[in-house]
Amino acid sequence: MTADELWNEGAAALRNQLAPATWAAWFHGVTPLSHGDGTLVLSVPSSLAAERIRSSYAGMLTDAIRDRTGETVQIDLVVETTPRETVVEAQPELTIADERTLITDGLVTTGLFRRVRHPMYVGFALWIVGWSAYQGAVLSLAIGSLGLI
Question: What is the residue range of 125's domain?
């Protein structure tokens, strides 16, 4: 039998034994490469999948192939990854109302950021100062009404 025939027989039997999510997680992208000398060489998409198949499913796969075809094979896994395509997206040029162009790859020096680097933290600091002034006024009213001052 060819590698494709062995894999198709074994995969069909194994697929019936596994949950669909398990099959999709570990066997998606597995393809047969060669068969010879009692060894079926399979290509797997990642080293993680290869390790998981070796540790958990190699015995089930060899049993499934033996049950379907009568041939005893040893499973050999080869990690073959395909390089991913890099997608470079164009960055839009940012402008503000007075037609000054913002620098997109450096330090922004226009608008509020000309004077303050982190306006959120300045706002928080002002809130703390205001709250303490408010609490201080409440405390003075309380102390004054008790006649302690």
Answer: 98-149
Measure the N-to-C terminal CA separation of the chain; round to a whole number of Å: 102
Residue 114 CB burial class (10 angstroms; 0-12, 13-18, ≥19)? exposed
Tally Cβ neighbours within 10 Å of residue 123.
Answer: 11
Instruction: List the chain residues with pLDDT less than 50.
Output: 97-99, 102-103
* 75 in the same domain as 106: no
Q: Are 120 and 67 within one domain?
A: no
pTM here is 0.53
Taking only the tens place, the pLDDT of each residue in 83-98 is 656 666 665 555 554 4
Task: In whole angstroms, give the CA distance from residue 132 to residue 103.
Answer: 39
